[in-house]
Amino acid sequence: MRVILGLWIFTLSLVGFSQQTESVDFKHVSADISIEPRERMVFGRAAYDFTILKSVDSIFLDAQNMKFSEVVLNGNEVEYSNDSKKIWIKYSFKPSRENRLEFSFKVHPKKALYFVESDDYTQIWTQGQGKYTSNWLPSLDDTNDKIEFDLTVAAPEGFEVIANGELLERNDGRYDFDMKHPMSSYLVALVIGKYDKKTEYSKSGIPLELYYYPEDSLKVEPTYRYSKRMFDFLENEIGFGYPWQVYKQVPVHDFLYSGMENTSCTIFADSYMVDAVGFNDKNYVNVNAHELAHQWFGDLVTAKSGEHHWLQEGFATYYALLAERDIFGKNYYYWRLYEYAQELKDQDRQGQGTSLLNPKSSSLTFYKRGCWVLHALKEKVGEKAFKEAVKAYLEKFQFKSVETSDFISEVEKSSGTDLKPFVDLWIMGESFPYDEAHELLLKSKFIQEYEMVDCEADNSKCSYYLDSYISDEAKIKIIQQKPTLITSETFKNSLKVRQVLAQVLTTIPENLKADYEGLLVDASYYTKETALYNLWVNFPENRAVYLDETAGIDGLSYNVKLLWLALALNTENYKQEEKEQIYNQLVHFTSPNYGFEVRMNAFQYLLMMQGCNEECLENLEQAQSHHNWRMSKFAKEQLERLNKKN
């Protein structure tokens, strides 16, 4: 019997999988979930409403390493099997509209739902794309299966629950969420933690819920700056109203990526929570706009396969850039396109260029070449035809899956243009059409000016240009090409230019010392960090002065603080009685209480100083199993180096 059952499961895994979308249409999931942080377990009772499209002898849901009980089909117990990857329901199904499958489940998720804990906080959050929601909630990994998810979640006392859709009710630690439309399973989101929120409303009346940690109230405005403006802009620019009931943005600790566009509920890395100074160094604006654009391009319409991934990432990159153009201006827009073109050109030079429809293409290709395709396409067919096509595309394929030809067909209809030559060049070709892109860039006088200023080709006017009213980008180009032209006047330029001055002048001339010291009070944590280090190296006699001046500055992800601690430890006769305390502070930054970027920075300082003590080493060993691949990879590499030295 066991052999026969095993053969049945094996046969289904080969045959049933490919046929399920033709036979079954899962419509709705209602899941009641409770989470036990101490055991790192998920418990749930779920009901799945589905339609049988044609006769079939089994159906399945993806379910990784789960245990099931009380499995009921249309009110009756039903035979099922569990192969640790799927739950299979064995039944003679006939075409029918209303069916319901119910069961209880429990699971210890290995990925996709993460328990992030330290002495200072506890968070639980999900990441479905690339990790599969089926690791914590039975669902369908195939992105072409779109289901309406309504979650009820029980949370420990004192914690907030945030998930997709509108919060209907909150009672005794239970949160009831409602979605109105279907989505791919990878877009299911759940966050549990300690949060406050600020709510704004778009012009169209959509609630915009901006979440933050209670201690980060002063970071709310800089972090979420322009959020409402970008939302209103994109609704108008896209020409298709925001398709969900609410839009939430939630920072989480040690997130796997910059952000993730879960339907109606973007999750993003809390390292983007910045104060007013940090905004000048690393802000959330682009990620904010990118994930918001995905609510249409990715969530509303979803690529059928990896071959068409650019329909999500290229569109999100392009519309984010349009939103930024509305805020920062046309020169910013063209500068970003220029940078993208240079990156794509370099990729081709390295022999790594691929067709936009190659599912193994790089992120650079999917995101930035995809963005360029849309810019070039709009230039070709005109703004009116382009916008009409985008609107028609979204209306026709809303809540469905798409491929590239679906979009191109709409553009051909609206413009009356045969786009085959365009598609062959911009989409199918392995090389990025740099010459054609460059021609489009030269429509911008800003780009013309930037290319005209070239000190390597003609040095005669560069000193004049540096003191003129040319763009910051052109001045930065001069500074990088000819740092000998830097004078006291150069330090009177914009913050952006001064950031580059700090980096370029690693050897500081005596006549520029006072000007360079002024960088320590610039409104940029990156500038403060670079200036502190270079001044400390160049003028040993003033080290204590520089350290006193920057004491108490944390910076962006503690960048200034960590450098300060390292330099203080290496400065003779500076705070001798506090050296042990300073050292212990630096070691403490390697603990799980801090974000992985902070920890990696602290580890690097200690390892460079050969000061990684027992506590530091324990934290490094613990970091090998960190859920964020950057942290775990870093820890493994550093331990391997230490072992080789020993």
Question: Could you write a compact summary of the structure shown?
Answer:
The chain contains 23 helices and 23 strands. The protein has 646 residues and is α+β, with helices and mostly antiparallel strands.
Structural notes for this entry:
- It contains 23 helices and 23 strands.
- The longest helix has 22 residues.
- Among the domains are: 143 residues, Neutral Protease Domain 2 (Neutral Protease, domain 2, Orthogonal Bundle), CATH 1.10.390.10; 163 residues, Serine Threonine Protein Phosphatase 5, Tetratricopeptide repeat, CATH 1.25.40.
- The relative contact order is 0.06.
- It is globular and about 85 Å long.
- A hairpin with a 5-residue loop joins β17 and β18.
- Helix content is 42%, strand content 21%.
- The strands form 5 sheets. Strands 1, 2, 4, 5, 8, 11, 13, 14 and 15 form a 9-stranded mixed β-sheet that branches. A 5-stranded mixed β-sheet has the order 17-18-19-21-20, with helices on one face. It has a 4-stranded antiparallel β-sheet with strand order 9-10-16-12, with no helix packed on it.
- The protein is an alpha+beta fold and 646 residues long.
- α3 packs across α5 and α8 crosses α9.
